[in-house]
């Protein structure tokens, strides 16, 4: 199973969107070099307010480019980096991966999937009504989060558009992703 990096983004300041870059550098145990969310402990404002000593399971945010096409079909225009992700992918069912999946990017950088992004109301501030496109309910009434996944950096290295992503599923029983 493999996919492709289509865009990389980072921002050194708190902002909903992140500018696209030619490349980003992943730092083991920290996240994206120069990104406001990099660190050993939580950096997202809502998490810091709850407990700033908790481990940062949200070092790198990935979104599947296919989400933008789905939103476009409903009249929204979303481009890579605009939902705050660091890595935009194509060809990977990110939401279907189990916790602990390793994502090997061009044979050097390695991410470990920790869970789902929990979309916030800022998405509607970006584009009114977009939150309903990235969060919904299934037929059983369960919440379905579609705004990407979160990960931690196991092995650092550069990441660029066009890089190949190979997935390595964890052994043993697979745990489905939940919000982190």
Automatic annotation (TrEMBL):
Per the UniProt entry, the signal peptide is none
Q: Where is this region: Disordered?
A: 161-180
Report any Pfam family annotated for this entry: MOSC
One example of the protein's molecular function in GO is:
catalytic activity
Domain MOSC, chain residue ranges per copy:
18-168
Q: What SUPFAM superfamilies does the record point to?
A: PK beta-barrel domain-like (SSF50800)
Official protein name in the record: MOSC domain-containing protein
* Species: Streptomyces coryli
Upper classification of the source organism reads: Bacteria, Bacillati, Actinomycetota, Actinomycetes, Kitasatosporales
């Amino acid at each position: 199973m493999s996919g492709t990096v289509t865009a990389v983004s980072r921002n050194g300041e708190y902002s909903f969107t992140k500018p696209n870059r030619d490349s980003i550098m992943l730092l083991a145990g920290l996240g994206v070099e120069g990104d406001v969310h990099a660190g050993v402990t939580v950096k997202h404002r809502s998490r810091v307010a709850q407990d700033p000593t908790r481990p940062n399971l949200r070092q790198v945010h990935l979104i599947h480019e296919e989400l933008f096409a789905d939103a476009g079909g409903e009249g929204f225009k979303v481009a890579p980096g605009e939902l705050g992700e660091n890595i935009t992918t194509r060809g990977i069912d990110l939401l279907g991966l189990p916790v602990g999946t390793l994502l090997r990017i061009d044979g050097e950088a390695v991410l470990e999937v920790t869970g789902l992004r929990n979309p916030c109301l800022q998405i509607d501030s970006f584009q009114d009504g977009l939150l309903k496109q990235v969060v919904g309910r299934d037929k059983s009434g369960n919440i379905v989060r579609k705004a990407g996944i979160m990960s931690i950096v196991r092995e650092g290295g550069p990441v660029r558009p066009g890089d190949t992503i190979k997935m390595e599923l964890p052994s043993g029983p697979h745990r489905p992703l939940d919000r982190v």
